[in-house]
């Protein structure tokens, strides 16, 4: 699905005076699943896409898709052109038009930087661990992560922290003991997406948990 030639194309889409970068519509995903013979019909394709959404491989972008994801215990994927989605660990970000100036303002990056540093992050798809640089901002409450070797111009992804829960954990369900051990913590977003991270020391873990908790409670 993420193949650059035959996969779902990541686009820049506009809705409600906002630009959604590196994303695609729900209908596009369903069309692709049928065209690639992954599903026999649209109903079956929606079930498959909903599974990908619940597994965290696909993420909702915008109010329409987020409403579908929050309807019940299981997230529902919407076969609609108005429902936007993006790949986890992609370069997705949202831009909003300023009402005072006819310019584009990157809303997610507007907040003051509260904390930054490198952590190990578990990928959603392959479950492997990689070093990522994290930058935590408040108002709006976001944490962006980057490939530390490529600078801070293009984030690999972002986590909206409003309403999120962050806790220390002793192990990660999908991780082998020899792969990662100690100083782990978990962020669970309001959309029930789980992110597993590892700090270098116990004190650093405490600092990150305290900072993320504060932003999640007070930020927009």
Q: Gist?
A:
With 220 residues, this protein is of the alpha+beta class. Helix content is 21%, strand content 33%. Strand 7 and strand 8 form a beta hairpin.
Please characterize this protein's 3D structure.
- It comes from Danio rerio.
- This is Pleckstrin isoform X1.
- The chain has helices at 26-35, 42-54, 63-69, 202-218; strands spanning 11-15, 18-25, 58-61, 84-87, 93-97, 104-105, 112-122, 129-138, 142-146, 157-160, 165-169, 184-188, 194-198.
- It is globular.
- The longest helix has 17 residues, at 202-218.
- It starts with 10 loop residues before the first strand and ends with a helix.
- It has 220 residues and is an alpha+beta fold.
Question: What secondary-structure arrangement, pairings included, does this model have?
Answer:
Blueprint: E1 11-15, E2 18-25, H1 26-35, H2 42-54, E3 58-61, H3 63-69, E4 84-87, E5 93-97, E6 104-105, E7 112-122, E8 129-138, E9 142-146, E10 157-160, E11 165-169, E12 184-188, E13 194-198, H4 202-218
Antiparallel strand pairs: 1-2, 2-4, 2-5, 3-4, 5-6, 7-8, 7-13, 8-9, 9-10, 11-12, 12-13
Query: What is the H/E string?
Result: EEHHEHEEEEEEEEEEH
Distance between the termini: 33 Å
How confident is the prediction overall: mean pLDDT?
Answer: 85
**Residue share in helix:** 10-25%
- Strand-residue proportion: 25-35%
| Sheet of most strands | 7 strands, antiparallel
Strand order of the largest sheet: 10-9-8-7-13-12-11
> Uncertain segments of ≥5 residues (pLDDT<50)?
98-105
Number of extended strands: 13
Shape category: globular
Number of helices: 4
CA-atom Rg in angstroms: 18 Å
Secondary structural class: alpha+beta
């Amino acid at each position: 699905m993420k193949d650059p030639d035959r996969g779902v194309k990541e686009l820049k889409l506009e809705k409600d005076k906002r630009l959604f970068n590196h994303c695609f519509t729900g209908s596009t995903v369903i069309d692709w699943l049928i065209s690639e013979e992954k599903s026999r019909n649209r109903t079956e394709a929606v079930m498959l896409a909903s599974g990908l959404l619940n597994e965290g491989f696909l993420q909702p972008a915008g109010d329409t898709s987020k409403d579908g994801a929050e309807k019940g215990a299981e997230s529902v994927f919407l076969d609609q052109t108005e429902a936007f989605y993006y790949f986890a660990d992609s370069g997705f970000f949202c831009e909003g038009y300023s009402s005072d100036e006819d310019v584009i303002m990157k809303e997610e990056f507007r907040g003051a930087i509260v904390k930054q540093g490198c952590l190990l992050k578990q990928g959603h798809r392959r479950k492997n661990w990689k070093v990522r640089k994290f930058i935590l901002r408040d108002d709006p409450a976001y944490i962006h992560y980057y490939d530390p070797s490529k600078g801070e111009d293009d984030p690999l992804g972002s986590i909206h922290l409003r309403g999120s829960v962050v806790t220390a954990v002793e192990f990660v369900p999908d991780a082998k003991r020899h792969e990662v051990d100690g100083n782990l913590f978990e962020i669970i977003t309001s959309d029930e997406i789980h992110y597993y991270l590892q700090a270098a020391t116990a004190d650093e873990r405490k600092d990150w948990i305290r900072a993320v908790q504060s932003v999640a409670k007070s930020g927009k």
